[in-house]
């Protein structure tokens, strides 16, 4: 998951890959990580996006695609909800810090 977060990943496919039922895999995953599969995947994507926002000059829609989101709008909404700031504001803060 950590290497393939940018690709479409489903719980069912991942469970099949390790020869477990989706229900059992889901339960094990939550026991081991404390998060459900989809939340864990989303947070991996958002954390990588945060890194790309601060370390590259890539466009926000390109970053959204790089981390597995086809829609930049959907990505921006999720980023704001879970990271507390929208991607555009991250970029503005980055520009301001470069000027100091």
TrEMBL record:
GO-annotated molecular function: DNA-binding transcription factor activity; sequence-specific DNA binding
PROSITE patterns documented for this protein: HTH_ARAC_FAMILY_1, HTH_ARAC_FAMILY_2
Annotated keywords: DNA-binding, Transcription, Transcription regulation
Coiled coil residues, start to end: none
Keyword Transcription regulation: yes
HTH araC/xylS-type domain location: 1-93
Record carries keyword Transcription: yes
Name of the protein in its database record: HTH-type transcriptional regulator YesS
Organism from which the protein derives: bioreactor metagenome
Classification lineage: unclassified sequences, metagenomes, ecological metagenomes
Gene name as annotated: yesS_5
């Amino acid at each position: 998951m950590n290497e393939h977060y940018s690709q479409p990943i489903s719980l069912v496919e991942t469970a099949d890959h390790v020869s477990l039922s989706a229900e059992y895999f889901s339960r094990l995953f939550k026991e081991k990580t404390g998060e459900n599969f989809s939340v864990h995947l989303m947070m991996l994507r958002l954390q990588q996006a945060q890194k790309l926002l601060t370390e590259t000059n890539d466009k926000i829609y390109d970053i959204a695609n790089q981390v597995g989101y086809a829609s930049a709008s959907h990505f921006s909404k999720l980023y704001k909800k879970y990271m507390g700031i929208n991607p555009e504001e991250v970029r503005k803060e980055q520009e301001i810090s470069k000027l100091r």
